[in-house]
From TrEMBL:
GO terms for biological process: methylation. This is peptide chain release factor N(5)-glutamine methyltransferase. Residues 106-197 form the Methyltransferase small domain. CDD domains: AdoMet_MTases (cd02440).
Length: 282
């Protein structure tokens, strides 16, 4: 291989070194390290690199070739335009979840007590708090819960960095928590049977308890519906993400277990049913 001293030569080397990896993952990793926007990354192919930049990039790409996710290599991800720290043991924020935050923001009111259930990195709470402030929605009482210590530590770090005041609780679903006006969650919903078709990077790196929702993918929701009335204030709402193939099962479950709730399903930008809102008619 000829000398690596420009972005173009680095990209050629990276593609040869990590042939199994997705080109967009390589591009994201290199662009972030070089502090280039996606468009700059495409336009600045002749950009000269320092030996230190080349060395760092080579180390990164070798880790990527071993199957480590780019966000874990960098130590952060982006969510709603906010830089969110992530590490092994914490789910990497997903673009689709931004739509769940958008939907919740539409119903958020001054003084609402809000729970981010299964907070993971804390990305939902950070985005919700920051975006609510932009809309002059104030005095939110924010809570974030998770079942793992790794997630709670990472979320607290993110709340500190983004100067968001949050009460953090360790809890399995809603057990032991108080009552809220809004509950928002991106829970585990992947079916055990879907392991075979999943990205190996995800399986290798991300926490199983944040991904898998039991044999049929709806284990979380089956427990949630039994507990939710004890943890919502009158007229309270929940906003949940789910796997697009689970809509019919969930519609049946909510109709059976939550007849006193108004249930609304929403499609994501790709046109697939991915979110559900429940409002307690009490």
């Amino acid at each position: 291989m000829s000398k690596i001293d420009t972005l173009k030569s680095l990209r050629i080397w990276a593609a040869e070194t990590a042939p199994e990896e997705r080109p967009e993952d390589i591009a994201f990793l290199l662009a972030e390290r070089l502090q280039l926007s996606p468009s700059e990354f495409q336009l600045k192919q002749d950009m000269e690199l320092t030996p230190q930049q080349v060395k760092q990039a080579q180390n990164d790409v070798r880790k990527l070739a071993k199957g480590i996710s780019p966000q874990y290599i960098l130590g952060y991800s982006w969510f709603f335009g906010y830089k969110i720290l992530v590490k092994r043991g914490v789910l990497i924020p997903r673009f689709e979840t931004e739509e769940l935050v958008e939907w919740t923001l539409q119903d958020l009111a001054n003084g609402d007590k809000v729970l981010d259930l299964g907070t993971g990195s804390g990305c939902i709470t950070v985005a919700l708090a920051k975006e609510a402030a932009k809309k002059q929605i104030t005095n939110l009482d924010l809570y974030a819960s998770d079942v793992t210590d790794a997630a709670l530590r990472t979320s607290e770090e993110n709340f500190l960095i983004h100067k968001v005041d949050v009460t953090v609780r360790k809890a399995n679903i809603l057990i032991g928590l108080e009552k809220f006006d809004k509950i928002i969650s991106n829970p585990p919903y992947i079916k055990e049977t879907e392991k075979d078709v999943m990205d190996q990077n995800v399986l290798q790196n991300e926490p199983k308890e944040a991904l898998f929702g039991g044999k049929n993918g709806i284990e979380f929701y089956q427990k949630f519906v039994k507990q939710v009335r004890d943890h919502l204030n009158s007229g309270g709402e929940f906003f949940l993400e789910f796997g697009f193939s689970e809509k019919d099962q969930l519609a049946d479950l909510f109709a059976q277990e939550l007849p006193d709730f108004t249930i609304e399903f929403k499609k994501d930008l790709a046109g697939k049913p991915r979110m559900v809102k429940g409002k307690w008619n009490k």
